[in-house]
Amino acid sequence: MQQSRARLFKEYKEVQREKVADPDIQLVCDDSNIFKWTALIKGPSETPYEGGVFQLAFAVPEPYPLQPPQVRFLTKIFHPNVHFKTGEICLDILKNAWSPAWTLQSVCRAIIALMAHPEADSPLNCDSGNLLRSGDVRGFNSMARMYTRLAAMPKKG
Amino acid sequence: MISDSITNASPTSAPTARDSPKKKRSNKSAKLKQNKLGLRREQWLSQVAVTNKEKSAKKPVELERREEDNSNGGDVVDVRQESYMESPSNSSMGGGSSSTNFSGCSSSSSCSGNITEEDNAVDDGEGEECVDDWEALADALEAEENESVKVEEESVREQPSRKQAWRPDDDLRPQGLPNLGKQLSFPELDKRYSAVSVPSSCPICYEDLDLTDSSFLPCPCGFRLCLFCHKTICDGDGRCPGCRKAYEQDVNRAESSVQGGGFTIRLARSSSMFCRF
């Protein structure tokens, strides 16, 4: 308990210091609870998510950093490894490949990398995975682009 | 300088000088050869000095030129004597090099060969005859070749110790020389620690690493962390955060895998440091 709190506090200071260093990630801590974090990440360029801003919710367990934080998308996203309704993310480093050396910031970077390189063989979103596995990249791109416009971009007008 | 060396060398070595050729043929053991070489050098030195004296007495007209020669020769003699006095074991090597300098002879034969050359030449009495009697010299060289080869082997065997520069504890070592051993040892240490970059804080708990932590390297991948976090991880899945491979020196794993009593007890004792946390 004390250990995870101290570590999260240090990570918070680190994030404040490195805010300018990574303009694609905005990591903020809940005012009242240091175990609740939210992050805003920009969709990577040259992907259907480009131009969108996606919100992530972090729930940090007490044994952190020995156990990984639970992360889910709050913003709707059409991606084979993200559950379309719950926003759950299928990412190995958030499960068995977690290492205590990772930080919330590095988890955000990993999620941005996952957005750029979807893994269609272990899908949480079967529709999205099936499009990619059948080779319909154009269909996948247009669907993902549509949901990015709908959910992750500021409404026009 | 010259007169010093002459007076010092001549009275002591003159009597032994006569015996040495016989000794050379009769003695076969290595140690005696070494002694004999030294003796012969002394003899040679004294004889050169004597002939120089004689020459200068015989030809007072050429005194000035002779003196020049003597001073050259005397220098070499002096050097040789010094080297002989300082380290008796070094005598054959040092003598060899300086004798070639002195005679101006470019023969590549062994050092003892050079010495005998000089010996014979001096025995003949005059320096000029040395050149005239060249063939006789060569014969003498050949006759002693077998022996000189042996001496050569000897000197080769002893070379490693001789070729070394001064040892740190050597008395003859100049005081001005820097102590390289000491100087090298510290930068090497520094290098070793800086090569694997030591983080200032533990990457797991972000606490500063103390001296014990920074010298603690639990995984061959080089990932460093504090002892506290290492203990916590070992209590859990026991995998290195850097490479995600199981820690090999994990106490529980080692104890469960090794059934032998002694080894297990030793492990437990050595790891008691971790258990205190």
From TrEMBL, chain A:
Gene Ontology molecular function terms on file: ATP binding; ubiquitin conjugating enzyme activity
CDD domains, A to Z: UBCc_ScPEX4-like
Domain UBC core: 3-153
Active site: C90 (glycyl thioester intermediate)
Enzyme class: transferase
Enzyme Commission no: 2.3.2.23
Keywords, sorted A to Z: ATP-binding, Nucleotide-binding, Peroxisome biogenesis, Transferase, Ubl conjugation pathway
Signal sequence residues: none
SUPFAM superfamilies: UBC-like
Biological processes annotated in GO: peroxisome organization
Family the UniProt entry places it in: Belongs to the ubiquitin-conjugating enzyme family.
Name of the featured protein: E2 ubiquitin-conjugating enzyme
From TrEMBL, chain B:
Keyword rRNA processing: no
Domain of life from the UniProt record: Eukaryota
Bias kind Basic residues: ranges: 21-34
Composition-biased stretches (Acidic residues): 116-129
Protein keywords: Metal-binding, Zinc, Zinc-finger
PANTHER family: CCR4-NOT TRANSCRIPTION COMPLEX RELATED (PTHR12603), CCR4-NOT TRANSCRIPTION COMPLEX SUBUNIT 4 (PTHR12603:SF0)
Stated name of the protein: RING-type domain-containing protein
Record organism: Eruca vesicaria subsp. sativa (Garden rocket)
